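[job 0412] stage=fold_complex status=start
inputs:
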Amino acid sequence: MKTSNYLGWLGMSFLAISAVSVQAADIRVGFGLDALTLDPGNHRSRETETIVRNMYDGLLTRDAKMKVVPELVSSWKQIDPTNYEFKLKQGVKFHSGDEMTAEDVKFTFDRIIKKDMIDGKSSPRAGLLGPLKDVTAVDKYTVRFTLASPWAILPSMLPFQELVSKSFVQKVGDKAMATQVNGTGPFKLVDWRRGDSITMERFAGYYGGSAEIPPVGQAKADRVIFKIIPENASRIAALLAGDVDIATELPVHMMKQIESSKNAVVMKVRGTRSFFVSLNNTKPPFNNPLVRQAANHALDKKLLIARIMQNTATPINGVLSPDAFGFDASLKTYDYNPALAKQLLAQAGFPNGIDVTLDVEGSFAETAQAIGSLLTKAGIRTKVVVGEGTVLRTKWLQDKNKTGDMWFTSWGNGSLDPEDIFAPTLKTNDRGNSAGYSSGVVDGMLSAASTETNAAKRADLFVKAQKQVNADAPWIFLWVPEDVYGVSKRLKGWQPSADSRVNLHRAYIQ
Amino acid sequence: MNLGKLLERVFQLIPVMLGVSAIVFLMMLVTPGDPVDIMLGEQQATTEQRDALRKDMGLDLPAAQRFVHFLKNAAVGNFGYSYFHRRPVSEVILERLPATVELTVAALLIALLVAIPLGVLAAVKKNTWMDRLATLGSLLGISMPGFWFGLLLMLVFGVWMQWLPISGRSDIASQVPIVTHFLTLDALLALNFEVFVSAVSHLVLPALTLGLPMAAVLTRVTRTSMLEVLRQDYVTFAHAKGLTTRRVLFVHALRNALIPTVTMAALEVGSLLGGSMIVETIFGWPGLGRVVVESIFTRNYPLIQAAILLYALTYVMVNFFADLLYTVLNPRVRL
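[job 0412] stage=fold_complex status=done
writing structure:
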């Protein structure tokens, strides 16, 4: 065979194979990280949860507006500050065909909250259930959750947990749960090639999903494939080539490329992560509130959001996202005013300005450089120091004596409840309080809010705490970015959700 | 080579492995960052939960004790537990290793198949346009950063022409049972031509990205070495004896000229192993390199230690085989 013929033949075979391998009813997702395990009780990884959630349902879930709604339960109520009762839907089947009962719910949660329950080790998800002490099966379809102390956010935290089958786990063992799936979700596991792809197919016995999120019924797609493509550019290339239908975590600078393509669009949704520059409140110069206020006035957030974030972020004046419970929209805005910033610095005793450093992780260096140059213009002469995330977290969160000046950082708030962002980042000595901020008033209000069961009173406590923090300005308040996705035009019935899940129950290819 | 010499070489491995283990351990010890902190992230965990995790990971013990513990266990093939994956380290490594080996072997084959003929051609046709083209090509290959070259190939053959898939090992891998963990072999064993072509087409771009820069280096080495050999008296004598040019080139000259190429190829296996980390990330290739990179970021000490030990062992073994190959290429070489 002549060389040219041979090459032609080779090319034709590849084309033929590519054509065969693309089936219209399959949805392919280009995803950055692989699942660590398929056992919903034995990981602490957001990516794992996103993948697993398509095969396992939970007692509760969230709708497109992030409202907590029933999924496997028909209703729930709070009996007293430490007791909740859930009524399960009847006739819900696991992939194995067994019916889900209260015993499965009890088993699922015992496995997470009790010690050494998963192959002799404790579940890394226990922390997500706070003071949950006991789960009891009242009857076949009723379960009661008992807390050791009042914890208002239990319903907001339950969408993070998925239900396993007691008999299945007991039959196959904990180890096998890492690779075998028997959930109540819309898709069944077909094959998991670690690091490469996870393939799922429609579960014909699916009960239909949450009644609050129509349409209810079986999954529309025949198969769903999560393809693991860690590199951003490769994920986008795969989308443009038609290899995947959804590319997650699209970098904003690549949006134009997608927008100008014929076969894909950009979809955005406001995420749940608040960004801020933590100012070291424990030592000069940022132990002076005037200097902290000056820093807030020194930044032109609108400009930064427009130029660097390509308008994919919402500015904030406090810790909470506008979507969070108890968000106060009336907080004072620190307007961009470099002259005022200089004046505040002079008032604080720094008429000639100050010299400080700004720590940042490599991936955000560009943003930090822009922030640094704006601060410098206002007299806060900033040197940007790029470091590795792990090292910076140790420096700012573990070390007793805080040595840095400023840290460009963020904190996630998947539950959209202040409890898991406000308290950890701003309560005195709490685990995420990088600024070393300490306010008796705020501490008191946050403690009261964490046990307050009346929603209106609780929201009020958070509003007051936000006003105090806004006035004290322990950080330079920045923004909540949007999650950006590249989505094939042929994919219908799917939209991104703020909790960054990719639930494909209702999606289909047209 | 006699058995005594062989055993001597095997015993030489022991200090090398010990040295590598100690260096890796020390480097991890001085690198800041707390694995417990990374694992728990922003989530709530009590001090007891943190301490329990630290104890489970064996991080509560003094460094020296941890090192001895690691050596003792490694000696019997136990590399510990990857808390990040919540599985034994050896399981994670063995699962990912075949993909990396498949990719590295493919890249090595591409490098040798391109470099040797091109190097010989450039030497024989010295100072002609063919020689200049080969030199220019190899210069380009050496200068281009791997990740950029990979993205370029992806753009041209994946996005524009859509001839080759962009990421993964195969879309239809699930159609063949896992026997050897090498997908191309498994597909052949199952006589599934469709999966085989899919596997090969997925392999082409990453293997080219990894293999062509190496081919560039080897082309230059082969050319230089071939030029030198062609000037030797015995080659002139062979020509004078009336042997055909082909016979002189491939039987007499090339065998000797290949010794530096083999040495270089063996040394370059180190770059292949290192480069595979980048190429695997770009092409979503589910190999060991990617897991190692992830492990470095998550301070997954047991996995890093085991993987680097494996890399070191591979490197030493490949160079050992290169030494053996010298004796085949030139029987006068004695080890």
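[job 0412] summary: The beta strands of chain B are 81-82, 87-88.
[job 0412] exit 0
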